[in-house]
Amino acid sequence: MAASEPIVLYGTKDHVTRITLNRPKVHNALSAELVEELILNLRRAKDDPDTRVVVLTGAGEDAFSIGGDLAGRATATEDVFGLHDAESHYTQLFGILAELGKPVIARVDGFCLSTGLGLALGCDLIVASNDSEFGTPEVKRGLMPMRVMAVLIRNCGRKKAMEMILTGERIPALEAERLGLINYAVPGEDLDTKIDKLAAPLTAASPAALRLGRDAFYHMADLEFENALSYLGALWTLNLSMEDAREGIAAFQEKRPPQWKGR
Question: CA-to-CA distance for 200 and 248, rounded, in angstroms?
């Protein structure tokens, strides 16, 4: 990577914005600077009306991300409160992903470990090459994947999540697909084709409906069943009142493509 190249790349084509972690020489390790830039670029995508889908990936063919940049952390433990504050950007990162309001697809090619795994799991969908590996190896360094637990337990069975946390062993992509940890494992040469195929119906859908449904999905997941039904019932009424819903129904009846307004 040239010295002048940004550590996060951003580009939009056909309503799909690709955001790339651009530190391939260190396997896209998540330094504080990279995380801050990533947050800024995610907010940019959130506010851009031309962006309907975000694809998050890592530069190179070795790693999506190996997780947090451990350089300097071994000597950074004297000021515990200062260290805690310095790590808060990871919480902000997971928060902006949850609140983005647009579908996010993680494109994984290579290692996806530690906070890098948490970042991928924070996305709505994950497509990985068959050669990719997933894991939380923190325990092998005397650490625990504290923040990653919050997204891991919401994307994986409790027993398998605990096994990953306690052993630090990696899971190959095909097993991750079988476990439901990722959506698809495909040959490396088919990775971008699969991403494009997955993104196509998302870019064609109503942005307003996607935003409402995505937000509802994550909010209701932590509600008790009766409360979830009540919450979703209220949102269904809201959904029916949206301009895009009326347009979608009219387009269906008139046998024509819908013209979304995003509201």
Answer: 18
- Reading the block at residue 223, the tokens are 């509600």
Q: In the predicted model, what is the mean pLDDT of the chain?
A: 92
Task: Give the amino acid at 65.
Answer: S
What Rg do the C-alpha atoms of the chain give, in angstroms?
19
Give the distance, in angstroms, between the CA of residue 196 and the centroid of all CA atoms in the same chain: 16
- Find tokens 């790339």 and name the residue: 20
**Could you tell me which residues are beta bridge partners of residue 8?**
21
CB contact at 8 A, 52 and 90: no
The residue with tokens 């891991």 is: 152
Residue written as token pair 């090619």: 109
- Confidence at residue 3, expressed as pLDDT on a 0 to 100 scale: 57
Q: Which pair of structure tokens corresponds to residue 79?
A: 């000021």
Residue 60: phi and psi, rounded to 5, are: 85, 180
Given a cut of 70, whether residue 85 has pLDDT beyond it is: no
Which residue reads 């859908």 in tokens?
205
pLDDT digits (tens, 9 = 90+) for 87-109: 678 889 999 999 999 999 999 99
Which domains does the chain carry?
8-203 (3.90.226.10), 205-254 (1.10.12)
Nearest of 47, 26, 183, 42 to residue 107 by alpha carbon: 183
| Angle (CA) 15 262 242, round 5° | 150
* Active site amino acids: 138
Quickly list DSSP for 90-110.
Answer: HHHHHHHHHT--S-EEEEE-S
User: pLDDT digits over 190-220, tens only?
Assistant: 999 999 999 999 999 999 999 999 999 999 9
